[in-house]
Design goal:
Blueprint (H helix, E strand, L loop, with lengths): L5 H9 L10 E2 L6 H11 L4 H4 L1 H5 L31 H11 L4 E11 L10 E9 L3 E2 L4 E12 L5 E13 L6 H4 L29 H8 L4 E5 L5 E2 L14 E5 L3 E10 L11 E8 L4 E6 L12 E8 L5 E7 L3
Parallel strand pairs: 12-14
Antiparallel strand pairs: 1-3, 2-6, 3-5, 4-5, 5-6, 7-8, 7-9, 10-11, 10-13, 11-12, 13-14
This protein binds zinc ion.
C-alpha cells in the first residue's frame, strides 16, 4: 500500500482509538471555596448553595457545593503546564495528521455529564481517552476527521464524578481561492442562487406574549417602542417590567425609524441558507434614544461605518413575517 492510500491512513488513525492521552493528571488544588466564589462572580451566579454556608446548610445539599459546570476548572493545568507524563499520544496523533496535510483544527462541541455535586476538599484526577476518529468528512471548513475525546474526572476514592466528551475537527485548509468551491457542498453560501435548492424561509424571531406586539406592528409598517406608563422612559427590546421603576404598566410610542449605527458586525459563518452573505448586522441607536438590532441593507459591507445615519424600512420576508431593516440615508 502506498503512503497516500486513504484506507491505510484511516487504519492508522483507527489505531489511536482507545488510547489514553498520557497519564491521568491530579488536580493542583482540591475543590475549594475561594475558586468557587471567583467562578460565581465571573458567571454572575448568585445561587447561595455555592457561596453562603448558612443557606447551603439548609439546602438539600447540607453544605457548600461547587457549580457542576466548574468540572473542568478543577484540573486545569495552568498557563505553563507540566510536561505530559507517559506517552504523548496527542502529539503523536497530530503528527500523523500533519504529515497528510490536515494541519488545521477547530473545537466542535463539548458535552459534560455530572454524576454528583463536588464539595470542598474533593481532589480530582482527570484522564483522557481518544474515543473515536471519524472517516474523512467534507464540511464547509474543508475535508477532515472528527476526533472525539472522552475525559473522565474521578474523585479521591476513584469514583467517576463527571465526564466530558470533547470533539475536535482536524482538517485540510482549503487552498486560497478554493473555499467557495468546497464550502457550498453541505451549506450553500446563498441558497437563493442555487436553483436546485429552494430557499428556506427566514427563521422566525423569538416571539413571546411580551414581544408579539412589536412584531405584529412591523407588518403594518410601524416601529413601536415600549414606553413605561409610570416613569415615561422608553425601552427596547420589549419586556414586561420597567428596569427603571419596576412598573408593569406600559404603552408604546411610534418611532420615526431614524437613527445611527452604534456598532455592527458582518456575519460570514456559518452560512445559513435563508440569509444572504456577507450579512451585516447592526446595533442602531434610534433618535428616540433606544438601541435596536437589525440588518443593514443597500450598502456594501465595507462602506458601513459607525455613526452612519440610517432609516428603517419594512421588508416583507414572506406572508407571515415582516422585519425592520435599516438603509443608509442618502446624503
Ligand atoms: Zn418606569
Amino acid at each position: 500500500m502506498s503512503q497516500d492510500d486513504p484506507t491505510e491512513f484511516q487504519a492508522r488513525l483507527k489505531q489511536f482509538e482507545g488510547r489514553e492521552l498520557g497519564e491521568p493528571f491530579v488536580a493542583r488544588d482540591p475543590v475549594n471555596i475561594p475558586m468557587i466564589r471567583h467562578w460565581c462572580d465571573a458567571m454572575s451566579d448568585a445561587n447561595p448553595v455555592y457561596t453562603d454556608p448558612q443557606a447551603a446548610e439548609g439546602s438539600v445539599h447540607g453544605g457548600i457545593v461547587a457549580p457542576p459546570t466548574m468540572l473542568q476548572a478543577w484540573t486545569m493545568r495552568g498557563l505553563k503546564p507540566p510536561p505530559t507524563k507517559g506517552a504523548d499520544v496527542q502529539k503523536e496523533l497530530w503528527g500523523v495528521f500533519d504529515s497528510r496535510g490536515y494541519t488545521s483544527i477547530v473545537a466542535v462541541n463539548c458535552d459534560q455529564e455530572y454524576a454528583r455535586y463536588l464539595r470542598p476538599g474533593d481532589l480530582l484526577t482527570h484522564s483522557v481517552v481518544i474515543d473515536s476518529i471519524s472517516d474523512e468528512k467534507k464540511t464547509a471548513l474543508g475535508q477532515g476527521h472528527f476526533i472525539s475525546q472522552l475525559h473522565t474526572f474521578r474523585d479521591q476514592r476513584g469514583e467517576t464524578v463527571g465526564t466530558m466528551r470533547f470533539r475536535l475537527f482536524r482538517f485540510k485548509p482549503p487552498a486560497k481561492g478554493d473555499a467557495p468551491k468546497e464550502a457550498p457542498k453541505e451549506a450553500p453560501k446563498d441558497a437563493s442562487k442555487d436553483p436546485s435548492r429552494p430557499r428556506p424561509p427566514r427563521p422566525r424571531p423569538g416571539m413571546t406574549r411580551d414581544t408579539e406586539h412589536f412584531w405584529a406592528a412591523l407588518k403594518e409598517g410601524k416601529l413601536l417602542i415600549q414606553k413605561c406608563r409610570s416613569c415615561g422612559k422608553l425601552r427596547h427590546p420589549p419586556e414586561p417590567m420597567c428596569p427603571h421603576c419596576n412598573s408593569l404598566e406600559w404603552d408604546t410610542t411610534l418611532s420615526k425609524g431614524r437613527g445611527r449605527i452604534y456598532s455592527f458586525v458582518v456575519m460570514h459563518y456559518p452560512p445559513i441558507p435563508a440569509f444572504d452573505y456577507p450579512n451585516p448586522i447592526a446595533l442602531v441607536e434610534l433618535d428616540e434614544g433606544v438601541r435596536i438590532v437589525s440588518n443593514v441593507i443597500g450598502i456594501p459591507k465595507d462602506d458601513i461605518a459607525i455613526g452612519m445615519e440610517v432609516q428603517c424600512e419594512f421588508v416583507a420576508c414572506d406572508d407571515d413575517l415582516t422585519l425592520h431593516q435599516f438603509r443608509p440615508v442618502a446624503k
